[in-house]
Amino acid sequence: MITIFRKELKDVVRWTPLGMIVIGLLCWQQVPKYLNECSQLPTSLASMVIIGSGLFALVLGLLQSLFDQRTDSRAFLLHRPISVKDIYRGKLAAGFVAHTIAWAVPLLVMAIYLETKGPEKLPVTWSDVIPAVLCCLLSFLFHPAGIWMACREARWLGTKWMPLGIPLMACFMSMARISVPWGWGSAVAMTSIVLLSWMTLSAARHAFTHQTFLPSSASEESWSWSNALGLGLGSLVLVVTLMVSGVGFIVKPDHSLSLKGRRLTASADGQLWEIEETWKSPRGYKDAPIHRAGRQLSGNAGPNAAFAELPEIWAERTLVQINSNSRWNGTSPWNGYRRVTSSAAKDHGSVALFEHNQRLYAYTDIEGWVGTVTPQGVYARHETPQGAFNHLSSLDYFLSSTVYNMSIGGQRLLADSNGIYQLDFDARKIRRLSETPAQAMAVTPPSDKLPEATLWARDGETLHRYSMKPLTKDQTLPSTDSELVKATHSYPLANVELFATGQWPLDWVKESDAAWLTMASVDEMGVVIVANDIAPTFDYRIADAGGKVQDAGTLPDLVPEQVHGQVEAIASPPALIVGIPAIMSVVAPDENRQVNAPALFWLLLGLHALAGGVGAFVLARGRVQGTRQQVVWLVIGLMAGVSSWLAVVAIYPRWVVESCTACQRRRRVDTDRCEHCSAAWEVADGEGIELIGPRDQYVMTTAVG
Amino acid sequence: MLDPVIRTERLSRYFGQRAVVRDLSLKVPPGQVTALLGLNGAGKSTTIRIIMGLLRPTRGGCQVFGQDSAQLTTDTRMRIGYMVEGHFLYPGMRVRECAEFQRAGYSRWNEAMFDQIVGHFGISQSTHVAHLSRGQRAGVSLALVLAPDPDLLVLDDPALGLDPVSRRALNETLVEFAGDGQRTVLLSSHLLDDVERVADRVLLMIDGRLQVDTTLDDFRQRVTGYVLEVDTVDADRIAAVPGLIEARRLGNRLHLTVADADEETTAAVHRLNSTSVEIIDLPFTDSVLAWLSRSRQQQSFSIGSRRGESA
Question: A536, A548, A661, B9: which sits with the fewest CB atoms below 10 Å from its CB?
Fold first, then answer.
């Protein structure tokens, strides 16, 4: 194998400068110059280099296999006392080394550059390239996919390219993986990556060691599970993507007409409502007249009440949302420096705050690193900071009204497992406002209708509410209805102090819903709490200031019927549409996950399944052996829909057939006996001029044509 | 009887709907040089590729040294020297590097033989393959396949594109290699003179089927040539000559080539209204060409090219 490795490496290493240049240019594009480019650097760098390294891996794979598809070079390579598997391994290893050199050099340069820039100039570190390294490693899958593609017998203008779908999916999964913290979704992504990698490597090996010898369809050599699974999955993704995109293109929603939207809210008298708002002109046109209708959900009304005009005296309370996931603030868990927030600073305009090693590092675009924040204080760059946060979270945005999203300017609120803090960067001070731990917070700023400013904080299974007051008399908390706030969409938070005004248990909230809490203060300072209102079913509680529950209930998903989405769903695999709710009903039987759709939807979905099943069965007739396998494809077709057609064509080559001399029916040429009448192949009549064997020496015993 | 080195049993290979090799059953005996002849597209290279385990048969079987050719072990491959059509070598390598690359895995490697053959073709080992002439590439290829001292040598059109000197060097090397009667050679070639010089047996493939499989001497004995003086030609009568391979008209002379001629053949020839009939000794090349021409004419568009009629 080492000889093959050396020879292959010598062949492909000459291409590595090309790969280095491509990947290097992509890295250069991602070199951060400003602070706002630093927070997403690990993911943006990874998403760029994975394109270049994937393409380069594919080029290497094709270079190493297409040339050897020529009869002479292939014969020269394969006829030697080295097993075909070792030759394949040698090629793969050489490709891997060449590929690794091509991405490792630019990423190493990038890592050195980042390390020289950080932390003084920019909040970056060499470890920001780690996601890119992982993605580049994974993108090598395009190399075996190239071999798989080249060695597979298929038309270039047909299914030849289908193997590329598998590494493509793996790379998408890797991007998803590095963008989310460890958890359930990440475990699914990791498992998928492992399976897709196995599929690619195994199918490529099979293609090189078996398919490239062009075995007959009847031969066991022509079959490989990884090849079949890979091509089947590729077909599914390709056809579903094309069909859903096609349907989405054809059935476009008309944005020029009136639009409807629904949202959840609370009335001032402490009831849960759903409001339907209708815009009479395109969305986004701020002066467009909005028509509002509503229906009460809590109490005895229920979710089936009809929408009606809202009474004139009806008043709304702002719902705010606590989102524990916002701790991640949309950035990758791989970030060395994770931007969490920014804070007002007179000297600098504002400073961007990046979390690193449980401390906050303050940066400006011009001066770079200007200070470090810990619960113990705010330190200048040259000072040695003391202390550290513990599970820090910050507050950047809150829903100040039902229409506008607003960011918090002014003095930043922070929370960790030791309490709630406020940072005054100008004064180089951080104050602890509460010693109650908080995993997440939200603020209801004062408005004309509810002048009380409220801070909500979740501590495990308890929801705390605080009243916020300015710390000094010369400071104020303006109304969100003020022109300044409306114009800037930024709330200038002054230094405040907190006064506890109530707490409510959250033990009724399911663990999976705890990250999404929506709440509002209502009359007599009671509270309406809704847990994860985007779930298929969600719970709510209405309690008074003393914590006594006034009303509680469970409501179904209130998202209005999405006809557009349903049409697209018809193009999806029928088993997916029917199966996922069925599986979830077993996994989570307490949640109502029924698909609410009209009868026409089910009819069309049924027709899709039927077309898939019948089509796959018919196509399989000339390609798979035996009724049993055809029935298997009928079932697969029923479940996967029309994507199974492409899968059958991609996986099984069409049989070559000739007329049977015994039964006159079309029989396969690659089997010894006719599948219809079991007749063997007849020996063709000679022409009377054959000279077979010396009459007296070497007598042939077999018949010849 | 010694076991054949190569044995195929009703071997067939299709490419799409076309059967390139059909029901091919042959045995290559040990210790002899067997020539595989046929026109381009007759299925020779396909057969060799199947024998070498580089292509799977559509149906039928093929064994080399008693082993299924699709499952040749590395030990068996070590016993086979295979010279690829076109004398393929990696253009980026030097001759010395070719030898280093080729010898990997072989338990035997005769360095002296390699040097001798390469020297015979006047090649420096430091020369880049890309700078070699076709004849020199053939010399390096031959040296590479002979240096491991194989028991079976398979040569796919080794003299393709070679000048006469290189051809002679190739033939001499082959004769020397197979001269001890211990090694087996399967040689595919279009150069009938060379084949006549080095081969013990001849296999002739026409349109994927085996037409001739015998020793060279037997082949010569069993093919007979007739020269007839004729004024007119009756195509039906010519076609009725038993064992007729080919009929060619040159002026008023009709040349017939017949396989396994007997009394019935002679009688049929005499019924052709000729003024004279002469039996001639056919050279080997003319006998083979008779088969090949017959095949070519069957594929032509000529209206008069019915079976056996080329006059």
Answer: A548
User: Which residue is listed with tokens 């996967």?
Assistant: A640
CB A45 within 8 A of CB A158: no
Whole-number Å distance between alpha carbons of A235 and B110: 53
Pairing of strands A290-296, A308-309: antiparallel
Q: Are residues B46 and B18 in the same domain?
A: yes
Residue B1 located in a structural domain: no
CATH number, residue B121: 3.40.50.300
| Domain count along chain B | 2
**For residue A469, how far is the Cα from the chain centroid?**
42
Instruction: Flag if B84 and A700 touch (Cβ within 8 Å).
Output: no
> Which domain range does residue B105 map to?
6-207
* Strand pairing class (A397-399; A405-410): antiparallel
Average pLDDT, integer, range B23-31 = 91
Nearest residue of A to residue B29, measured between CA atoms: A698
B249 assigned to some structural domain: yes
B130 and B170 part of one domain: yes
Instruction: State the SS3 of A119-181.
Output: CCCCCCCHHHHHHHHHHHHHHCCHHHHHHHHHHCCCCCCCCCCHHHHHHHHHHHHHHHHHHCC
Interface test with A, best of B1, B55, B65, B107 (most A CBs within 10 A): B55
- Find the CATH number of the domain harbouring B287: 3.30.70.920
Domain assignment present for residue B242? The answer is: yes
Nearest-CB residue to B55 (from A214, A672, A684): A214
Residue type, B281: D
Tell me, rounded to whole angstroms, the distance of Cα A168 from its chain centroid. Answer: 13
Structure tokens, A496: 């405040």
Q: What is the pLDDT of residues B132-178, one digit of tens each?
A: 988 889 889 989 999 999 999 999 988 887 888 888 888 888 888 88
CB contact B11 to A (< 8 Å):
no
Q: How far apart are CA A334 and CA A18, in angstroms?
A: 29
What's the pLDDT tens digit per position in A542-566? 888 888 888 888 887 665 555 556 6
Residue in B20, B90, B282 to test binding to A, most A beta-carbons within 10 Å: B90
Tally the C-alpha atoms within 13 A of residue A651's C-alpha that lie toward its C-beta. Answer: 26
Length of chain B counted residue by residue: 311
**pTM, rounded to two decimals:** 0.82
> Tokens for B43?
């299925």
The reply to whether residue B59 touches residue A72, judged by beta carbons under 8 angstroms, is: no
**B155–A contact, CB cutoff 8 A:** no
User: Residue B137 is encoded by which pair of tokens?
Assistant: 């590439």
Best residue in A15, A63, A216, A689 for a mutation probing chain B (most B CBs within 10 Å): A689
Which residue's entry shows tokens 């019924």?
B271
Interface touch A80/B58, C-beta < 8 Å? no
Handedness of CA A432, A437, A439, A444 (dihedral sign): negative
Three-state SS at B123 = coil
The answer to whether position B305 is within a domain reads no
Who among B25, B56, B74 is closest to A215 (CB)?
B56
Q: Is the Cβ pair B105, A704 closer than 8 Å?
A: no
Q: What is the CB neighbour count within 10 angstroms for residue A75?
A: 23
CB atoms within 10 A of CB A239: 21
